[in-house]
Amino acid sequence: MLSEKVLAALNAQINMELNAFYTYLSASAFLESANFPGFAAWMHHHAEEEMEHAMKIYHFVHERLGRVSLQAIPAPTQSWDTIKAVFEAAMHHEQKVTASINALVDLARSEKDHATEVFLHWFVKEQVEEEMIVDQVIQKLNLIGDFRPGLFMLDHELGEEAEGES
Length: 166
Ligand code: FEO
What we know:
The chain has helices at about 5-35, 35-65, 85-110, 115-145, 150-165. By secondary structure, the chain is mostly helical. The chain has one domain (about 5-165): Ferritin, core subunit, four-helix bundle (Ferritin), CATH 1.20.1260.
């Protein structure tokens, strides 16, 4: 059985992952309308991953005989000034998710909930990868600067990457 505190924190994490899904999907819609299909596909792929994260926790709560309680998801940002700003917003979001996962691990540990702590290890590792992946794109965008052909080449590269992963 989950303690009330751990259950509430897991439900809050489901909301956060769904919020991330919505954020990435909104970024994908923006990039699609800005005629960057590769960046849009990359964001769409990551949106799907966030939904998988939410569902992993959703199923875990049920396995532990808890009650999933879905809450409202705030409206995401709809537009950004630059492509780099889109990815910086994604990075900011990932850092918030990482902090939340770490706090959840701390809570599981203090509640002596070993099953939840072990379950969360996957998320701890996943966050390291997620931050690294977003940072790689930001670094490439830094190198490209205002060089438009470079932006289109990266759009193509990320589109192929998203296709290979889906
Ligand atoms: Fe599920 Fe990207 O955090």
